Amino acid sequence: MNDRLTIRGRELPIPARAARWVGIVAGVVLMLAVPSFFSSVDVSRMADAGVFILLALGLNIVVGYAGLLDLGYAAFFAIGAYTYAILASSHYNIHLPFWPLLIIAAFVAALFGVILGAPTLRLRGDYLAIVTLGFGEIVPRVVLNIEPVTGGVNGLSALDQPKLPAFGPLQAITFGYNPVPYYYTILAVIIFSIWLIRNLQYSRLGRAWQAIREDELAAASMGINTVTTKLLAFAMGAAFSGFGGCFYASKLALVTPEAFTFVISVTILCMVVLGGMGNIAGVIVGAAAIYGLTTYVLIQLPIWMQSVSDVTGLTVLTTLDFTRYNFIIFGVLLISFMLLRPQGLLPSRVRKAELKGGGVEGSMGAAPGSEVATAPGVEQ
Amino acid sequence: MTIISVQHLSKVFGGLKAVDDVSFDVEEGQVFTMIGPNGAGKTTLFNVLTGVYRPTIGQVLFNGQPVGGLPPHKVTSLGVARTFQNIRLFGYLPAVENVMVGRHCRMHSKLWDAMFNTPFARREERETRKRATELMELVGVARYAEDLARNLSYGDQRRLEIARALASDPKVLLLDEPAAGLNPAEKAALGALIFKIRDLGVTIFLIEHDMKVVMGISDHIVVLDHGAKIAEGKPAQVRANPQVIEAYLGKSA
Predict the structure, then answer these.
(1) Does one domain contain both B174 and B162?
(2) Residue B7 lies inside a defined structural domain of this protein
(3) Which of A67, A295, A330, B79 has a CA-to-CA distance to B215 between 20 and 30 Å?
(4) Is A218's CB within 8 Å of B89's CB?
(5) DSSP letter at B227?
(6) Nearest residue in chain A measured CA to CA from B123
(7) Nearest to A80 by CA among A200, A267, A280, A237
(8) Do residues B217 and B187 share a domain?
(9) B99 in A contact zone (CB under 8 Å)
C-alpha cells in the first residue's frame, strides 16, 4: 500500500504547499532572468524549445491522459502556423494582430481536431494510430498542393511580427528580430498552458480521460460518453498545438510545409514518452532534453570531438564523421534510454506503478475486454 | 411497479443464439436474481440491458421507456448501474476517484469549468468527493480511499465496484456474480450489503452462481439455460423445478 497518491496541491499539508509555491516562484523568476545571462542566439533557441515544450504538453493530453496514440500531431501544429500566416501577412492583406490570433489559431486547430476525431475516435489503439498517421501525412501534402492559398513549397513568408500595443504610458513595442520578447511570450503561454492543463487533469474531464485510458467499457458503463470525451482530448491537444504553431510562425515570419512532417510528430511523441507520459514536469524536461539533443548537442558534437582530439591526441575521433551518424546516435540514445528507464525521466505516479505492477490486469487474472467480445478495434 | 421489463429479447452472434426469446419483469424494490449454468447467456443479457450490445430482436423497457440499443452511458444516466463479473476497476486510479468516476453522469462541470477550475467546478468536486467517501463507507472500504484500486484485496475490490456503481444514483443495480471468489464470511457480508442497498430504495438485479447466496436473499429468480428462460418464480419454486435440477445436475438415466 505504498502507492498512496496525493490528489492535488491544495490538499497537501500547509508546509508542502508553501514549499511548492516557493519553488514555483523561484522557477518563474529564474526563467524571467534568463535573457540577461544568455546571448540572443541562445535566447532565440530557448524560445524555439518553448514551442516544442508547448507541443509536448498538448500531445501529453492526448497520449498521456486519454491514452490515444496520435502519430500525426504535427498536422495541428501546421494548421496553427498557417492560420497565423494567412491571417497576418500581406498575402491576403489581412493583418490581424498576434494576440487574438493566438487564440484563433488554437480554436482552428481544435476544430480540425474535432473534424479528424469525430469519424475516427470509434477506432481503438493501433487503428487510431494509423488514421492519425494518415492525417499527419495528408495535411502537409494538402498545404503543398493548394498553392494559391498556402504558397505551396515556398510557403508563406514575410509574416507580420507581433507587437504590444501602446498601453497608458507604455509605448508600442514591435518584436522585430529581437528574441527576448518572443522568449517572454512563449514563457507566458507555457505557464498559462500548464495552469490550464493541470486544471484539466484534476477535473471531472481529466478523471474521465484516465478512466477511458484504463478501461473504456467500464468508463462507458459508468456514464461517460466515451466518444465526446475522447473528442475533447483530441481537441484540447490540438488547441495547444495551434498555440504553438501560431507562435512559431510569428517568430520565424515564415511557414513552409516541410516544417510539419512525420518526423516532427514522432519527435514530439518521443518527448512525451521519454519525459514521462502523464506528468507535466516530465514532459517539459523530455521536450527540453530532446530539443537540446537534436538541435544543439548532435550538431556541436563534431566540433567538441575535434577539440577533444586536439587535447588528447586521439586523432581517431576526427576521422569519424559525427554529422553522418547523427540519427544513429540519436536512435541509440533513445533505445538505451527506454530500456533503462521505460517510465520516462520524471514518470507520473500512475506510470510508475503500472511498470512496477505489469499491466492493468494486475493480479486479477482476467484481462479487461475478455468478457465482452468486440470486433477488433471497433467500438460498440 | 415494474422497473425493468425484458420483452421477447434475443441476441444472436453469428449462428449462436446467446439469448433466445427471453421475457421477464423486474419489480421495483426486489432482489431479483438470474441463475443458469455457464454459457447460459446471463452476462450477454446484462450487456444488452446496459447498452453494451444491441438486442437482435425484442426490447428492454426501463421504467416503461425502451433502452435497447441506447449507448451504455445513456443507460447509466437513466438509472441503471452495473458491476462486472471480472472486476473492471480503474486499477491505477485511487479508490475514491474510481467512485468519483461513477458520479460522472451526475456532475455538470463543463469544459470551461474544467479548464479554469471555476468555483462551480471546485464546489462540485468537493461534493463529489464527499459523496464518494460516503458510499465507500456504506460498502466498508472508506479506509482505502487514497490507495490505488488495484492494491485493494479481492473482496474489497468487489465492494469498491459496488460503491462506484452506486455513485451514479441508480434505480437498479446490476451485479454480475458479486460473490464469485469471496470466502464464506465475505459472502455473508455481501448478502447484508445487498439488503442494505435495497433498503436505500435501489432495486437489485443480480447474476449469481452460488445457490446458498441466491436462495437466501432473492425475492424472485429467473433461470436461463442455453439462452432460453426455463423457469421463473420464488426461490423455493425454482429449487423444486425438475427442469432447473436437470439443467444444473444433468438428466438422470
Answers:
(1) no
(2) no
(3) B79
(4) yes
(5) T
(6) A203
(7) A237
(8) yes
(9) no
Structural domain includes residue B20:
no
**Which among A4, A224, A380 is the nearest to B53, CB-wise?**
A380
Contacts 24+ apart (CB under 8 A), A169-177: A175/A250
What is the ipTM metric for this complex? Answer: 0.92
Domain boundary among B167, B200, B220: B167
Please state the separation of Cα A165 from the chain's center in Å: 29
Instruction: Kindly report the nearest CA distance between residue A323 and chain B, in angstroms.
Output: 43
- Which of B43, B104, B148 is the closest to A224 by Cβ? B104
Chain B within 8 Å of A350 (Cβ-Cβ)?
yes
* d(C-alpha B195, C-alpha A127), whole Å: 45
Can you give the residue range of the structural domain that contains B144?
A: 88-167
Please check whether residue A8 touches B, CB under 8 A.
no
Residue A240 vs residues A81, A98, A280: alpha-carbon distances, Å: 12, 16, 14
> Would B120 be classed as within a structural domain?
yes
Contact A77, A143 (CB under 8 A): no
Per-residue pLDDT of chain A (380 residues; tens, 9 = 90+): 333 344 444 466 778 888 888 988 999 999 898 888 898 899 999 999 999 999 999 999 999 999 999 999 999 999 999 999 999 888 888 888 889 999 999 999 999 999 988 888 888 778 888 989 999 999 999 999 988 888 888 888 888 888 887 677 777 778 877 889 999 999 999 999 999 999 999 999 999 999 999 999 999 999 999 999 999 999 999 999 999 999 999 999 889 998 898 999 999 999 999 998 889 999 999 999 999 998 888 888 888 888 888 888 777 777 777 777 778 888 898 899 888 888 888 887 777 777 765 444 333 333 333 333 333 444 43
Check whether domain A41-358 has CATH 1.10.10, yes or no = no
The structure's pTM equals: 0.87
Beta-strand relationship, A173-174 and A163-164: antiparallel
What is the residue type of B125? E
Q: Is the CB of B180 inside 8 Å of chain A's CB atoms?
A: no
**A193 near B93, Cβ under 8 Å?**
no
Alpha-carbon distance A97 to nearest alpha carbon in chain B (angstroms): 25
Between chains, do B90 and A204 touch, taking CB under 8 Å as contact?
Answer: no
- Residues 6+ away with beta carbon under 8 Å from B229: B22, B23, B24, B222, B223
